[in-house]
From TrEMBL:
InterPro entries: Acyl_CoA_acyltransferase, GNAT_dom. This is GNAT family N-acetyltransferase. It comes from the Bacteria. Residues 17-167 form the N-acetyltransferase domain.
């Protein structure tokens, strides 16, 4: 499925709240409020629009200009200043249709063409095979398993470390 990436708009807040009011999505992300309210969405969008444009690159993933998810790349600092972390999610109704793969491809291309970042990494939960597959389809290499690396919903879980190096 073809999708596009663009900056978030305040008008997207209701759609964003609807996407994130899904426990199946939230169970694969870092902790966010549940239920996820329109105020939470407005706060997130405001934060992305006010973020340092040299450190934070956050985009709405859209189909026909309607948000179906979000993707972000977050630059690290100090000796890791040319390294950035990738995170993303897709609305459940679009799972398995290629939107995640397309969005990751577009975002990584944008980062490598418009910044000095040389390494993008992602740390999906080890059980999130769909997210791991999206990364692999985009050339990310699994560097290993981060054992007992997070506590999510009261469970200690492993994460995988994936990276993509600037071509």
């Amino acid at each position: 499925m073809e999708c596009s990436i663009r900056k978030w708009k305040i008008e997207d807040s209701a759609t964003l709240a609807a996407i994130l009011n899904n426990k199946k999505i939230l169970d694969n992300l870092r902790d966010l409020p549940f239920p996820y309210t329109e105020k939470d969405a407005v706060d997130f969008i405001h934060a992305t629009l006010q973020a340092d444009e040299n450190k934070t690159y956050v985009f709405a993933i859209t189909v026909d200009d309607i948000p179906i998810g979000s993707i972000g790349v977050y630059r690290k600092d100090n000796i890791h200043s040319q390294t950035a972390e990738l995170g993303y999610y897709i609305a459940e109704s679009f799972w398995g249709r290629g939107a995640g793969t397309s969005a990751v491809k577009q975002t990584c291309r944008y980062i490598f063409e418009h910044t000095d970042i040389i390494r993008i990494f992602a740390e999906p939960f080890a059980y999130n095979t769909a997210s791991c597959r999206i990364l692999e389809k985009n050339g990310f290499i699994c560097e290993g398993v981060l054992r007992s690396n997070a506590v999510k919903n009261g469970q200690i879980i492993d994460m995988k470390m994936y990276s993509l190096i600037r071509p």
